[in-house]
Specification:
By secondary structure, the protein is an alpha+beta fold. The chain contains eleven helices and ten strands. Strand 2 and strand 3 form a beta hairpin.
């Protein structure tokens, strides 16, 4: 069902290895190593319990008959169920379209370019296209004074595509003070790892002076559109630094749109605004099918984000 924690909303916490939900022992600077994405049994049990409870909340339960019907159809005839994604009908303000476990790079790229994305806690994968979407032009990003100061002081080192697996795992960990329920499951991690290896999915890493990963985010680039998936921050301003660095590079590279799935206060503070699905889909048709910047990304050291004058 819908995420208990909004995908691009704020902060995730990565506990010490002994208490982490995901095994991170193979997280490495070797960007081409094939990682293991393993969710601990206790975390799986908790996710199923909380996922079921979340789906039954009054604000969500109205979609349950549709979900049950679509799930039954998918179990009986998966190909027919997947055809729903080809001619979408939107259910509820959340925009439930259909069910498909096809998370191949081609299926994901096609879905995102047509304004839909996969997301669920338990069961077969649900695909969504909400009736409103949070978007911003990279030039519109808000860079706080504290972030500019930390950038000038070079408190942290920022990289692109150096530890994609580590960023995904950190984003999936429980967030302090929030329901410990994630939609970033091992199958989602494996799917986005394939997209990353193909040069379409990217990560931003923020490292402290000791070389520890303390913040970052990851997302998917299609043409001149960047779809934000999730972010995390273990220290003050780390994810904001990642956002600022990413936004300036996206603007420099010619990206025209950054999207964040569900609108939140956090995204609003960063400069996102809401547009309707009817406004969003034509923008994707115009910009998401262009060739884009495919391949490994690297930070351009000539770009001084601390002095960047945004249009926020």
């Amino acid at each position: 069902m819908m995420p208990a924690l909004t995908p691009a909303d704020g902060f995730a916490s990565a506990p010490p290895e002994s208490g982490a939900d995901f095994d991170r022992r193979d997280s490495t600077s070797n960007v081409d190593a094939s990682p293991r994405f393993v969710e601990r049994p206790s975390a799986i049990a908790r996710r199923y319990l909380l996922g079921a409870a979340y789906a039954l909340r009054p604000v969500r339960i109205g979609l349950m008959p549709t979900v049950a019907w679509m799930t039954a159809e998918y179990l009986v005839n998966p190909k027919a169920a997947r055809r729903r994604l080809e001619n979408p009908v939107y259910h509820g303000w959340q925009g439930l379209i259909g069910i498909s476990d096809d998370l191949s790079p081609g299926a994901l790229l096609d879905g995102y370019r047509r304004g839909m994305f996969p997301l669920c806690h338990i069961g077969p994968m649900k695909w969504w296209s909400p009736n409103v979407r949070p978007v911003m032009h990279p030039h519109e990003g808000h860079v706080e004074k504290s972030v500019r100061r930390r950038l000038r002081q070079k408190t942290y080192r920022v990289t692109f595509d150096t530890d994609f697996a580590g960023v995904m795992r950190a984003c999936a960990e429980p967030r302090p003070g929030k329901t410990p329920l994630t939609w970033i499951t091992p199958r989602v991690m494996r799917a986005f790892w394939e997209l990353h290896q193909a040069g379409h999915a990217h990560s931003v890493e923020v490292w402290d002076a000791d070389g520890q990963l303390v913040g970052g985010d990851y997302g998917l680039a299609c043409g001149n559109v960047y779809f934000g998936e999730s972010k995390f921050s273990l220290v003050r301003d780390a994810s904001k630094i990642a956002d600022a660095i990413l936004n300036m590079h996206l603007a420099h590279w010619g990206f025209v749109l950054r999207e964040g799935k569900w609108m939140t206060e956090h995204l609003a503070r960063l400069g996102h605004r809401v547009i309707s699905r009817d406004e969003f889909l034509p923008l994707l048709r115009e910009h998401a099918w262009k060739p884009g910047r495919v391949g490994r990304w690297a930070v351009d050291e000539t770009l001084d984000v601390s002095r960047w004058q945004t249009k926020a």
